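TASK: fixed-backbone design
INPUT:
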């Protein structure tokens, strides 16, 4: 197995683990993970979608994020709200996640293992340690969904759902 195949496997594993829980919350998308609020499933799904589009298109490739209009809803500076009218419909966000992931995999198909050492084209200042290279960006893409998976698991508990081993 080469490094890019390993990265693709990691991306799919984190996707499947996280979406298994997220998809189960489609009927309760605004359930917060704690009694004090937090990132609800719809915000997490949109945030993961927006962030992946941003990392691949803007940070790695140097292009504009095609989902830049989502920044106000799902950017990391945005505090989630429990008003459904503040967000796009779940089905639209979920479909866009799949489209963004397919585009990410196409981009990876055009890379060689040597490309992983290339500097990212738009690394945010101060984030060089994590996002300064193509490999660093892809590592963040693999880990990011699993970080938010715990928040979805907590939201499921708040919705009185039993643990789901997706």
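OUTPUT:
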């Amino acid at each position: 197995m080469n490094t890019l195949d390993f990265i693709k496997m990691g991306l799919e594993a984190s996707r499947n683990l996280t979406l298994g829980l997220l998809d189960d919350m489609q009927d309760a998308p605004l359930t917060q993970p704690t009694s004090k609020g937090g990132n609800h499933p719809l915000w997490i799904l949109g945030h993961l979608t927006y962030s992946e589009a941003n990392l691949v298109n803007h940070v790695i490739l140097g292009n504009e994020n095609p989902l830049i209009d989502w920044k106000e809803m799902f950017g990391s500076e945005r505090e989630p709200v429990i008003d459904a009218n503040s967000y796009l419909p779940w089905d639209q966000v979920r479909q866009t996640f799949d489209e963004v992931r397919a585009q990410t995999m196409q981009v990876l198909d055009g890379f060689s293992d040597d490309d992983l050492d290339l500097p990212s084209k738009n690394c945010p200042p101060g984030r060089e340690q994590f996002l300064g290279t193509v490999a660093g960006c892809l590592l963040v893409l693999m880990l990011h969904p699993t970080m938010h998976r715990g928040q979805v698991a907590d939201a499921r508990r708040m919705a009185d759902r039993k643990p789901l081993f997706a």
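COMMENT: The chain has a mean pLDDT of 97.
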